[in-house]
Write a structure and sequence with these properties.
Blueprint lengths: L2 E5 L2 E6 L3 E2 H6 L9 E6 L2 E3 L4 E2 L3 E7 L3 H23 L4 E6 L2 E5 L7 H16 L5 E5 L1 H10 L3 H9 L5 E6 L2 E3 L16 E5 L2 E5 L16 H16 L5 H9 L3 H24 L6 E5 L6 H13 L4 E6 L28 H12 L4 E7 L4 E8 L5 E6 L17 E7 L14 H17 L3 H18 L9 E4 L5 H13 L9 H11 L17 H4 L6
Parallel strand pairs: 1-7, 15-19, 15-20, 16-19, 20-21
Antiparallel strand pairs: 1-2, 3-6, 4-5, 4-7, 8-9, 9-14, 10-11, 11-12, 13-14, 17-18
Helix pairs in contact: 2-3, 4-5, 8-9, 11-12, 11-13, 13-14
Length: 546
């Protein structure tokens, strides 16, 4: 029986027997062939070693895309942990990402500069000798025994609680592991990387989709590192660093206590932030910023309550009312209106009215009509002498937005889920995935959007965050981590049925499948015990701030 393989923007090919995706790639004229790291077969992400046995639509994933870089980094991570396991018998735990780099530490001791160099040399040998990365399938009990033999106790425990049977493992140089997505089928595909000894651990840096031929320059951020390291230590102390720990909490009936402890930490962090603002009486303007679905609305309202408990009154200025008229909106690279660009706001009017408000003057705040795409008559606003002004939006940290206000009068806060509970010590639930799960649930609840519509839009949202938001986080006076260790288990109950509505023929079916596969390792925690002031309520509903 013949097999027809269709491709995007090129003629289909007919084969008389099954063929791997890599073999199919070699049969077509594909630009930048060297940048291909994986593929999508009928919209589902697969390694290039995937055997195509029926009529299929195949798309190749390259490193000039976000998806391609994710495959690249996953593969590099496997090379690193494989080298550490084989050479030294040491375990590496992925604890955080920063500056497009990934930080590993070892429970077996400090990673020295010499060990870092030794591991990098071994990784480069694996690349030079084209060590194969083989996808294999094992019964769950066999996979558990293999993880136990490699001293990957977290993975063995996770498979004890959950996961499909059989289990897909990747093998490189005799070391086995499982991941939340496809890997390259050969180490030679990932030559661009760097290891850096830092803080007793290792930072692994790779390329970005903007330039996949160069390792992204590592930008040290001691403050961000300390904040994430502190939260990682907090999770470790509570034995909830990985989903195996969360499963244990649920099994032992301690999920409610865990929720309360996580919420108590948020309250403590907000109280500390309010105290820092109170210690600067000259501050008149609070600037809050963060990417989509970071929890800005709830965090800002809880902060205002916390400030009021100290006698500090505040008023909010909605930046969404300062959009320029639709015909003046700048265009993105696809020629579509770029509503996330800073220039989509009337910067001159924003600066003028903020300065006037802080001077005690009354201003006419416009109202933006999103249907008509124009500003209309709004309302009058004046600050009392004892009030501070709060602005919240994706550009809140960009100095151009408030350049007319002296620096000592401003306090800037970056709000984002910075780190959370991992699937296991080699597989993070990335902060981008956390925000996507939040947004899927919120968009379905408040906007009636299908999961497919949200998934289709998400890559544009991520690109906008990388352009307009994350470059400015270092200018913040405070970094507020909105992660909650229990949130993905709560979101799972809401988002799973939404993701299952995405049809096989949808271009985002593969992304829906990836998220569902990730959620297989996550327990379900009911939302009953989530307090109504929690940032999570902003997405699942029932917030006291709605």
């Amino acid at each position: 029986m013949s097999i027809e393989i269709k491709f995007k923007d090129r003629d289909p090919l007919i084969f008389e027997k099954p063929i791997t995706a890599r073999e199919a790639l070699e049969k077509i004229d594909f630009p930048k062939r060297e940048n291909v790291v994986a593929c999508r077969v009928n919209h589902v992400q697969r390694p290039l070693s995937w055997e195509i046995v029926m009529d299929s639509f195949v798309e190749f994933i390259t490193t000039d895309s976000i998806e391609g870089i994710e495959v690249y980094i996953r593969t590099l991570s496997f090379l690193l942990t494989s080298a550490a396991t084989r050479l030294k018998g040491i375990r590496l735990h992925l604890t955080q990402s920063m500056s497009y780099s990934y930080f590993y530490e070892s429970p077996d001791g400090e990673i020295t500069e010499d060990l870092c160099r030794e591991l990098e040399l071994e990784m480069r040998r694996m690349v030079a000798e084209c060590e194969p990365i083989v996808r294999e399938i094992f019964p769950k009990d066999v996979a558990r025994a293999m993880m136990r033999a490699q001293k990957y106790e977290d993975k063995e425990q996770l498979l004890r609680f959950t996961g499909s049977d059989p289990v897909i493992l990747y093998n490189c140089c005799g070391v086995y592991d499982f991941f939340g997505g496809a890997l390259a089928d050969c180490a030679a595909i990932t030559p661009t990387f760097e290891l850096r000894s830092y803080g007793g651990g290792i930072f692994l840096s790779g390329p970005t989709f903007a330039d996949p031929t160069k390792t992204m320059a590592f930008v040290e951020s001691p403050r961000l590192f300390r904040l994430i390291d502190s939260h990682t230590g907090w999770l470790k102390n509570l034995d909830i660093s990985t989903m195996a720990g969360i499963h244990q909490q649920v099994t032992e009936g301690r999920a409610r206590d865990m929720i309360m402890v996580c919420e108590a930490l948020h309250t403590k962090l907000l109280s500390n932030t309010a105290a820092r603002i109170e210690a600067r009486p000259e501050v008149r303007l609070l600037c809050l910023a963060g990417p989509s679905s970071s929890g800005k609305t709830t965090s800002s309202r809880r902060l205002r309550v916390q400030l009021l408990s100290s006698g500090i009154k505040s008023a909010t200025l909605e930046l969404d009312n300062y959009f320029v008229d639709r015909e003046r909106t700048p265009l993105d690279r696809d020629g579509k209106p770029d509503f996330e660009a800073l220039e989509a706001l009337d910067l001159e009017l924003v600066n003028e009215q903020i300065a006037a408000l802080l001077a005690g003057e009354e201003v006419d705040v416009p109202k933006f009509d999103f249907i008509a795409g124009k500003r209309t008559k709004g309302y009058k606003m004046r600050l009392s002498p004892d009030e501070i002004l709060v602005i919240e939006g994706i550009h809140g940290l960009n100095e151009r937005l408030t350049e007319s206000i002296p620096a000592d009068k401003k306090y800037k806060i970056f709000i984002c889920p910075l780190t959370g509970t991992n699937i296991d010590f080699h597989n993070r639930i990335g902060t981008t995935d956390t925000r996507l799960l939040r947004r899927l649930v919120r968009d379905a609840r408040t906007r009636g959007h299908s999961a497919e519509a949200t998934l289709m839009q998400w890559p544009s949202v991520v690109r906008g965050s990388h352009r307009h938001i994350f470059p400015y986080q270092e200018y913040a006076d405070t970094l507020f981590n909105t992660s909650l260790a229990y949130e993905v288990p709560v979101l799972k109950g809401y988002v799973t049925p939404l993701l299952k509505t995405v049809k096989e023929e949808s271009p985002v079916y593969g992304e829906a499948t990836r998220l569902l596969s990730l959620l297989e390792y996550v327990p379900v925690i009911p939302s009953d015990d989530v307090p109504n002031l929690s940032v999570l309520r902003e997405f699942i509903g029932g917030s006291c701030f709605e």
